[in-house]
């Protein structure tokens, strides 16, 4: 039976600095996750032949680097574009753009960063990815929190409006097995 595995990139330098967006490298812990990932995937997937999909950002490729499978990069898997807030911390956004900060909290699904994207925008740009996923066999997707929330909501039949609030932890491999009665989920937390 076909499965889909999902993982966020390992912890990045920006994650440590609490900055959003950007294209930073993995932190030391992030690289530890990247080096453990092949073993974690193998334990979950066995011998099945996977294809790995990453975004075009450096942190997802560094995370997937040691995986012994064919890899494909998709621009459509890049993180939600925070526009003018790219590279800022949430505290900085609250000071510099207080109205935006509040508007986002009020309607996180529809809120679009000035010059950037909303969750709704991400859901729309993920449509070709979802269509391709439905056609493919076993795929491991290494991407970003906002993007994974939307993909996860789709397969779990959660209304997309709820996806911005879902928790997708770092350093955790999520296995989705679509079944007749719904999708079975297994979460494997890396020990780092
Ligand atoms: O850097 C962006 C985060 O992955 C998305 O988090 O939508 O909860 O601000 P947020």
UniProtKB/TrEMBL annotation:
It comes from the Eukaryota. Substrate binds at residues 8-15, 59. In the C-terminal section; belongs to the phosphoglycerate mutase family. This is fructose-2,6-bisphosphate 2-phosphatase. It comes from Torulaspora delbrueckii (Yeast). The chain holds residues 227 to 418 of 453 of the full protein.
């Amino acid at each position: 039976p076909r499965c889909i595995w999902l993982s966020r990139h390992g912890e990045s330098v920006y994650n440590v600095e609490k900055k959003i967006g950007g294209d930073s490298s993995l932190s030391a812990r992030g690289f530890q996750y990247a080096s453990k990932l092949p073993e974690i995937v193998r334990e979950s997937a066995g011998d099945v032949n996977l294809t790995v999909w990453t975004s075009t950002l450096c942190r997802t490729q560094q995370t997937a680097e040691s995986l012994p499978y064919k890899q494909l990069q998709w621009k459509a898997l890049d993180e939600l574009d925070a526009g003018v807030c790219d590279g800022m911390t949430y505290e900085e956004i609250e000071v510099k753009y207080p109205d935006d900060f509040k508007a986002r909290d009020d309607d996180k699904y529809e809120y679009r960063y000035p010059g950037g994207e909303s969750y709704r925008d991400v859901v729309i740009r993920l449509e070709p990815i979802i269509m391709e996923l439905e056609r493919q066999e076993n795929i491991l997707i290494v991407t970003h929190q906002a993007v994974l929330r939307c993909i996860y909501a789709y397969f779990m039949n959660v209304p997309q409006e709820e996806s911005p609030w879902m928790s997708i932890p770092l350093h955790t491999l999520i296995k989705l097995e679509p079944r007749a009665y719904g999708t079975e989920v297994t979460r494997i937390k890396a020990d780092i």
